[in-house]
Write a structure and sequence with these properties.
The complex is a heterodimer of chains A (about 140) and B (about 425). Chain A is built from six helices and four strands. Chain A has about 140 residues and is α+β, with helices and mostly antiparallel strands. Chain A folds into two domains: about 40 residues, no CATH class; about 80 residues, Glutaredoxin (3-Layer(aba) Sandwich), CATH 3.40.30.10. In chain A, strands 2-1-3-4 form a four-stranded mixed β-sheet, covered by helices on one side. In chain A, helix 1 packs antiparallel against helix 2 and helix 5 runs parallel beside helix 6. The two termini of chain A are about 30 Å apart. In chain B, the strands form two sheets. A five-stranded mixed β-sheet of chain B has the order 6-5-9-7-8. In chain B, strands 3-2-1-4 form a four-stranded parallel β-sheet, with helices on both faces. In chain B, helix 3 packs antiparallel against helix 4, helix 6 packs across helix 9 and helix 13 packs across helix 17. Helix content of chain B is about 45%, strand content about 10%. Chain B starts with about 25 loop residues before the first helix and ends with a helix. Chain B is globular and about 75 Å long. Classes of the chains: A alpha+beta (about 140), B alpha/beta (about 425). Chains A and B meet through helix 1, helix 3 and helix 4 of A and strand 5, strand 9 and helix 13 of B.
């Protein structure tokens, strides 16, 4: 692992590690390695990794479901989206299903207010959600190996 | 693609939906990069700054600081190197206008950044795009590649001797990084905590060097101003706020999307003429400027939506987000939602914001659960006022606006909750206990 430049862009590095790592997270040994490479203390790198909401230091599911509950989505019914997800996946916000398939997270505005309520699953945005539509999306993902 | 409502006037969005955003040829065919040619061949850097100053263009991110002055301060700064940053960390709830520009016409932003670089003597630009905007990021990478191939970026641009390069920095999920100094910390690879100001970015910005930081929409105005002149730009909008604004409309209206209109258009015009009226129900309130913005009631429908007119009323236009709500919306429930947002996104660096956002949410939650007291209303106002005076950045300074304006219009509704009744029936626990 080599740093791009002397600017210590550890955020780009953390993103890269997380993307490549199974379970969508940054393990401690990688954090230590990044700190070493960047010439920073472990606590500094830990501070950065825990500041940004896209990073996780805990293993997450194959699909990270991030539901928006900011103003526009809340107004258009994001509560019912959380309810159906919690019921179908049998997890609470911040938890991962026992089969490591899904993690449910709450997220601040995704900038998809034109299709509120909206959520993001990994890299894809799903908008104009209804409880029925959410069930269908989950079914599709459950079928995928 | 984000729907564009029928815009009455297009400067920023003039290519939107008209050209393929992934084709530089189509952009060039619409006079794209002509402004870069013009400044490099015919204008001195000082003239470019002068033109932008004369146009009266103000920052479209929300703070409305005169763009020309920002450029002038940076141009005059002695220290080198200098940097240009495009703030594409659009995170204000209800705002998706920068995403429209990033996805629909990325070359317009690149063109603005090159011109800014030439004007202030910077050779390196960064665009900080929030990590959630993946399509924007991909399109921007493609656009940068094309601009390089065509010789608009790199060494000796168009044979002028001027060099300029742009790098993309991807955000990693943080609202506060939209604040300019927090964004710079983040660009430097650190936690996105805001810095004390002064010094301001034009003297000490990125890596402590003179920096211009402009919003996406601001930079998307630059090319047209250079080609058509400051006077042309001033013929639109109002005297104090020339030009257009791209508004993002969401909520209980028939048509949601972006719309570009001259500064000074009213909320009523936007809702009835362009968003085709309410989707269902009756207008109750609108939040203008995002979650950090004010609630406007029916009496504000005819106030011109521009920086100065709203400021005179103690309100803000902010990012230009407009969230329209009908009578089924509960004022307390929405307030709780706004305060939850601030609590979650507070970076924790300064105490007023870290403690205050938590306290405010607790108070609003108690009110919504029939556990509130009459005195809690004053306590909320007082807390938010202290935060406004003492917080380090706009995040902690902002909650006063939604709180104050909700109480201005819906104090009775809040008091009803304290008595144990949610008039709209949205706050369930309140409602249930009451009906028992």
């Amino acid at each position: 692992m080599k740093l791009r430049n002397k600017e210590k862009d550890i955020i780009a590095l953390l993103s890269k590690v997380q993307r490549e790592k199974k379970h969508n997270y940054i393990p401690e040994d990688k954090l230590r390695l990044i700190a070493q490479e960047a010439g920073l203390s472990y606590s500094e790198v830990y501070g950065v990794a825990t500041f940004y909401s896209l990073f996780s230091l805990k293993p997450r599911g194959e699909y990270v479901i991030r539901v928006c509950d900011s103003g526009p989505c809340h107004l258009m019914g994001s509560k019912s989206i959380f309810e159906v997800l919690e019921k179908e996946l049998k997890v609470k916000i911040g938890q991962t299903t026992p089969d490591s398939k899904f993690t449910l997270e709450e997220v601040s505005c995704l900038g998809a207010c034109d299709e509120a309520p909206a959520m993001m699953i990994n890299d894809k945005v799903y908008g104009n959600l209804t409880p029925q539509k959410v069930r269908e999306i989950l079914e599709e993902l459950k079928k995928k190996k | 693609m984000i729907k564009e409502l029928k815009s009455p006037l297009r400067i920023v969005l003039d290519n939107y939906g008209k050209i393929n955003p992934e084709s530089i040829e189509e952009y060039i065919a619409q006079d794209g990069y002509k402004a870069v040619g013009k400044v490099l061949r015919e204008m001195e850097p000082g003239q470019v700054v002068g033109e932008i100053k004369a146009s009266g263009l103000q920052g479209r991110g929300g703070a409305a600081f005169p763009t020309g002055s920002k450029w002038e301060f940076t141009a005059k700064a002695k220290d080198t190197p200098k940097y240009i940053i495009c703030n594409a960390d659009e995170g204000e709830p209800g705002t998706f206008k920068d995403r429209a520009i990033l996805e629909g016409d990325p070359h317009k932003i690149i063109e603005g950044m090159i011109i800014a670089g030439y004007a202030v003597g910077a050779h390196h630009g960064y665009i900080y795009i929030r990590g959630e905007y993946l399509l924007s990021i991909n399109r921007f990478y493609k656009a940068l590649q094309q601009a390089k191939e065509q010789g608009f970026l790199g060494e000796d641009i168009l044979g002028s001797g001027f060099n300029f390069q742009i790098d993309i920095h991807q955000g990693a999920g943080s609202y506060v990084c939209g604040e300019e100094t927090a964004l710079m910390e983040s660009l430097e690879g650190k936690r996105g905590n805001p810095r004390f100001k002064p010094p301001f970015p034009p003297s000490r910005g990125l890596w402590k060097k003179p920096t211009v930081i402009n919003n996406v929409e601001t930079l998307a105005n630059i090319g047209s101003i250079i080609l058509k002149g400051a006077e042309w730009f001033r013929s639109f909008g109002t005297k104090e706020c020339p030009g257009t604004k791209v508004y993002a409309i969401s909520g209980h209206v028939k048509e949601v999307g972006v719309i570009e209109a001259p500064m000074g258009i009213t909320l009523r015009e936007i809702i009835t003429e362009y968003a085709r009226g309410m989707r269902d129900g009756k207008f109750k309130m609108a939040q203008v400027g995002g979650t950090a913005g004010a609630i406007l009631g029916e009496d504000m429908l005819d106030v011109p939506l521009d920086y100065t007119s709203l400021k005179e009323k103690g309100l803000v236009l902010g990012s230009g987000a407009i969230l329209v709500m009908n009578e089924t919306t509960c004022a307390v429930d929405m307030l709780k939602c706004f305060l939850n947002f601030f609590k979650r996104e507070s970076c924790g660096k300064c105490i007023p914001c870290r403690v205050g956002t938590e306290k405010l949410l607790q108070l609003a939650t108690a009110i919504s659960q029939r556990k509130g007291k009459e005195a809690d209303i004053d306590l909320m106002l007082h807390t938010a006022k202290v935060m406004q005076k003492t917080s380090l950045c706009a995040l902690g300074q902002s909650p006063i606006l939604p709180i104050y304006t909700i109480l201005k219009y819906f104090k009775e509704e809040v008091t009803e909750h304290i008595k144990g009744r949610c008039p709209t029936g949205v706050c369930k626990s309140c409602f249930l206990e009451f009906s028992l």
